[in-house]
TrEMBL record:
UniProt xrefs under InterPro entries: PC_trans
Keyword Transferase: yes
Membrane-crossing segments per the record: 41-58, 70-98, 110-129, 135-153, 174-192
MF-aspect GO terms: nucleotidyltransferase activity
The name this protein goes by in its record: Phosphatidate cytidylyltransferase
One Pfam family here: CTP_transf_1
Metabolic or biological pathway, per its Swiss-Prot or TrEMBL entry: Lipid metabolism; Phospholipid metabolism; CDP-diacylglycerol biosynthesis; CDP-diacylglycerol from sn-glycerol 3-phosphate: step 3/3
Subcellular localization, as worded in the UniProt entry: Cell membrane
Protein EC: 2.7.7.41
Keyword terms of this UniProt record: Cell membrane, Lipid biosynthesis, Lipid metabolism, Membrane, Nucleotidyltransferase, Phospholipid biosynthesis, Phospholipid metabolism, Transferase, Transmembrane, Transmembrane helix
Keyword Protein transport on entry: no
Membrane-topology descriptor: Multi-pass membrane protein
Originating species: Yoonia phaeophyticola
């Protein structure tokens, strides 16, 4: 009888996941560092693919319409980033409206998620432009560290589920650990930047916003009866699965930056 550790399939999956993660990290890091058109192109591509994944979860038998939705997203977002102003965000209604009119069911679901995905993508680009590499790095580290702390704490401590009907694997211990990890990231940034202690609180709130993005996508997948948003990324699922928390965090920052101007005070 062979031991579990010698099962080659297990290690093959681990290798695929590691290679996929390394590739995504490398491409993303380069784009974030370079900024400008390079980061914009990556965001436009990822945003368009996520809207395609959204469509395919709702209407998997109509892939052509899904590709047309993705192309329309890329066109609208590219044009808005190049020439648009804040009032031009109304253009982001085009894709949700067009998509919703093509759906007999789940039209509201598509409308809400498609609009949120586009606004989050726009927010990431403008956060990079308005606040620079350092604070986009802060945003990404908060999301990443929240996920890492939450994963290991949930595995180690277990306990009551955070929202069992929607995401049965998430626990309160993992959720709280994510907030702690985010607070640590915020504290580190108070040491190496001019940010005040408010950034620690902001980090924890941002962590929660990211967790809600994850929960929202989990609810969507459960509603659609699918395990992953797609199979584009070997060993990981789809781009929507990988960036759901970042979408939630980005939408939160749009609110605090453009409505309350919190970043201007904290940073």
């Amino acid at each position: 009888m062979s031991l579990p550790e010698t099962n080659p399939a297990k290690w093959d999956d681990l290798t695929v996941r590691f290679v996929s993660s390394a590739a995504m990290t490398f491409v993303g890091a380069i784009a974030v560092i370079l900024g400008g058109v390079w980061f914009q192109m990556l965001v436009v591509f990822v945003t368009a693919v996520m809207v395609w994944e959204l469509w395919m979860m709702i209407r998997p038998k109509e892939p052509t319409k899904g590709m047309l939705m993705a192309a329309l997203v890329a066109s609208v977002l590219s044009g808005q980033l190049a020439y648009g102003h804040l009032w031009g965000l109304a253009l982001f209604l085009i894709v949700p409206v067009v998509g919703a009119t093509q759906l007999r069911t789940e039209a509201k679901t598509f409308f809400i998620f498609a609009l949120g995905i586009q606004l989050a993508g726009w927010g990431l680009v403008h956060f990079r432009i308005d606040y620079g590499f350092t604070w986009l790095l802060w945003l990404m580290l908060v999301v990443i560290v929240t996920d890492i702390f939450g994963y290991f704490a949930g595995k180690a401590f277990g306990g009551p589920k955070f929202w069992p009907k929607i995401s049965p694997k998430k626990t309160w211990s993992g959720t709280a650990a994510g907030w702690v990890g985010a607070a640590i990231v915020g504290f580190i940034f108070t040491i190496f930047t001019n940010a005040g202690l408010w950034v620690i609180i902001m980090s924890m709130i941002l962590s929660f916003a990211g967790q809600m993005g994850d929960i929202a996508e989990s609810a969507l997948k459960r509603r659609m009866g699918v395990k992953d948003s797609s199979t584009l990324i070997p060993g990981h699922g789809g781009l929507f699965d990988r960036f759901d928390a970042l979408l939630g965090a980005s939408l939160f920052l749009i609110l605090v930056a453009d409505v309350f101007d919190v970043p201007g005070v904290v940073f």
